[in-house]
């Protein structure tokens, strides 16, 4: 077992040495990357941002502030104009959408059993055959119902009853 322990120690020592070497390489790579980023940042700033020249007298500082405020005002006006244009375009788009008629949705015919199965799932077996549960009722034909059916168009009936002749007919039919 002594030989095997030495071998295990050598393997773990080698692993630790490899880990430390890998960490050192990674640290140097990170430092290089950081330096590269800083150089890129400096290059970008030197290209896009001119160096700031601060004037010595108070009147020159005030003039610089006036120039900066004028640039800010111009940018704000441009921003406002763009917002108004965008709002107008959105309104036009909304108006266009409203002009076109959307097709109506199709109705889906589904039996009560299919609807219950869809809602409750296959767990519940409920039969909803409503027609089988209806009772047969014999309808008696009464005089009032016959009269109502015979009346037909109500406008004709009103025209007949209008005026003195219609009232006279009404009294004659009642008696």
UniProtKB/TrEMBL annotation:
InterPro entries: Troponin (IPR001978), Troponin_I (IPR050875), Troponin_sf (IPR038077)
One BP term from GO: skeletal muscle contraction
MF annotations from Gene Ontology: actin binding
GO CC aspect terms: troponin complex
Top-level lineage group: Eukaryota
Keywords: Acetylation, Actin-binding, Coiled coil, Muscle protein
Any coiled-coil regions, as ranges: 23-92
Keyword Acetylation: yes
Assembly notes: Binds to actin and tropomyosin.
Family according to the record: Belongs to the troponin I family.
Described function: Troponin I is the inhibitory subunit of troponin, the thin filament regulatory complex which confers calcium-sensitivity to striated muscle actomyosin ATPase activity.
PANTHER family cross-referenced by the UniProt entry: TROPONIN I, TROPONIN I, FAST SKELETAL MUSCLE
Name of the molecule in the record: Troponin I, cardiac muscle
């Amino acid at each position: 077992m002594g030989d095997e322990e030495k071998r295990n120690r050598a393997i773990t020592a080698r692993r630790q040495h490899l880990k430390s070497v890998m960490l050192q390489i990674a640290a140097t790579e990170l430092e290089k990357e950081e330096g590269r980023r800083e150089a890129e940042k400096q290059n970008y700033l030197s290209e896009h941002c001119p160096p700031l020249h601060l004037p010595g007298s108070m009147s020159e500082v005030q003039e610089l502030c006036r120039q900066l405020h004028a640039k800010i005002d111009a940018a704000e006006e441009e921003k406002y104009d763009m917002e108004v244009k965008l709002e107008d375009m959105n309104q036009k788009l909304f108006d266009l959408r409203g002009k076109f008629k959307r097709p109506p949705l199709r109705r889906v015919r589904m039996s009560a059993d299919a609807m219950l199965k869809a809602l409750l799932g296959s767990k519940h077996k409920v039969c909803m055959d409503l027609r089988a549960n209806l009772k047969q009722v014999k309808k008696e034909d009464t005089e009032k119902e016959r009269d109502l059916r015979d009346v037909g168009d109500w406008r004709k009936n009103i025209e007949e009853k209008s005026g003195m002749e219609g009232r006279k007919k009404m009294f004659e039919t009642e008696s």
